Amino acid sequence: MSELRELYQQLIIDHGRQPRNFGPLDNADIIKEGYNPLCGDRLTIYMTTEDDCIKEVMFEGVGCAISVASASLMTQALKGKRIAEADKLFDAFHELIMGNDYADNEDLLGKLIVLAGVAEFPARVKCATLCWHTLRAAMHHSEKEISTE
């Protein structure tokens, strides 16, 4: 195994065991729940927004290490971003996780690149994207329940 791949795995394990921005956000103006019925992953995204900007974003829930690590890394990447920037990041992450070329978006993706290896395991893609689909629905105030079926 390459040193870089091992480092990526360690970062995923770290975020899976000690997620950042984990817990409810008392002053959230947007709350959205997401659920993956195939594996049981469930999470809630909490956001505070101001002037089309994500001021704070946190999450809580239960899921596999990939699901939790993805949500943890996502919340770190989104703080302070405008909704339009978060949409671009969603699109870039989707390309990454689907195994498509992401070279043009490496700077935008930052630490999220550690999840690129998930593309090799199609059954785990839904684990990594649950938080992202929930976030997108939250940003655009979708009333539809989020499920990755």
Please characterize this protein's 3D structure.
The protein has 149 residues and is of the alpha+beta class. The protein has one domain: Alpha-Beta Complex (Sufe protein. Chain: A). Helix content is 44%, strand content 18%. It has five helices and four strands, in the order αβββααααβ. A four-stranded mixed sheet has the order 3-2-1-4, with helices on one face. Strand 2 and strand 3 form a beta hairpin. Helix 1 crosses helix 2, helix 2 packs parallel to helix 5 and helix 3 packs antiparallel against helix 5. The longest helix is centred in the last third of the chain and has 18 residues. The radius of gyration is 14 Å and the shape is globular.
Strand order of the largest sheet: 3-2-1-4
Quaternary structure annotation: single chain
At CATH level 3, the topology is Sufe protein. Chain: A
The portion of residues assigned to helices is 40-55%
The largest sheet, given as strand count, sense and whether it forms a barrel, is: 4 strands, mixed
Alpha plus pi helix count: 5
Q: Quickly count the domains.
A: 1
**Number of DSSP strands?**
4
The chain-level structural class is alpha+beta
At CATH level 2, the architecture is Alpha-Beta Complex
Overall average residue pLDDT: 90
User: What is the N-to-C succession of helices and strands?
Assistant: HEEEHHHHE
